[in-house]
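Notes from the 1:1 (GR / supervisor)

We went over the backlog. Supervisor wanted to see one worked example end to end before approving the batch request, so GR pasted a single chain during the call. The sequence is below; no edits were made to it. Supervisor asked that the structure be written out right there so they could see what the output format looks like.
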Amino acid sequence: MAVDWTLVLLSGSTLDELGEVAPTSVTMRWERNRGAVIKSMTLPHDAPGAAELVANREFGTPVLLAFRRDSLHDDDAPEPRLSVRLDTITHDLDQDGVPIMGLTWADPLGRPLSQATSSATFSSTPSAEIAQQLIETENTDAPSGLRVGTVVAGTTSRDRVFNLQPIASAIYELADLGDFKLQLTHLDPRRHGGDLAEISFLADLGHDLSDLVLFAAGPGTDANVLSVSVQEIPPVNQVTTTVRHAGAYPGDPNMGAIVAATLKDLSSIAKWGKFELVQETPDALNNADLAAKAAALLQPDPRHSVQFTPDPHSAPQPWEDFWLWDTVRLLCDSHHLRIDTAEPVVAIEIDLDENLQESAIRVEFGEPRRTETELIQGVTERVYFLEHPNS
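Structure output shown during the call:
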């Protein structure tokens, strides 16, 4: 039986409930070490919640709470699976003359912390404390809706200088170095002082559920997976990280010069050929920073990105049976596509239909799937630092 969801719209300024929203389609995404989003939502102008959303936008950015009605749901005081602010909105007139809104929503790591910036400097500071201070400093300036929970002790001490660095980007870079793992718990802001989520910086997350949670596709299997998509990704066996030299004094002739660190895996190059990556690292202060970033980017062996669609009726369920970081097993045996692997879940997407029932669930292993918008954003950030060498 399909799982039902309820979407509740709140006023951005007062958090008053404006009613339920009834879009015709929704796609939500959760990804480890990243914020959660509603990637797309289609809301006709005559659908429930549309008029309230438009009318209340002038009073602040609307908030949307998404509740999943599953076996873990608490009828008395449920916490949402997703708490998000409106990000972008488009209005289109379809071929039948019906106006339709296209909406995207993001949790506080996406809005506002992907736009809010920091120019702070840290010296020999544990990386989890850097992330904590970035958020708490921003909250004193303008509450982000994100509060800090547990901060693991003993993370790697790092030097960082941020020059208008987006706060979410700075946190993601530290997480990608493997210094900590992000845990996001979404909250009902009406009961939590306006906070939409709590973020914790932990040493470890997830459980090995490979003996308990099995996804399978193909003849002779449990066949609880509807489709499987595999992308083979070449290795990265030579990495160069770069930073522009800051002036030590006015007129320093070395100001603007590029400082670089290069790491290579010779055995990988001999086996697969050279696959080189050059990465701008604007917050690096010294060679150790550059080398650490390069080491994190080095991938000597080919990688893969696996996305599969479990049967929403017969397969294990997100939250109830598994979640991000948990290790689950995928078995696929069909012609030349043969997979038998146990890997941590890196991302989960859920589609809702016009009845707000789950119509599709997609689970990802390996490298997360990147959208064209995300790839363009990464190129844009790189171009900015190349065009502003003294920033």
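Supervisor's comment: Residues 372-391 have pLDDT under 50 and may be disordered.
Batch request approved.
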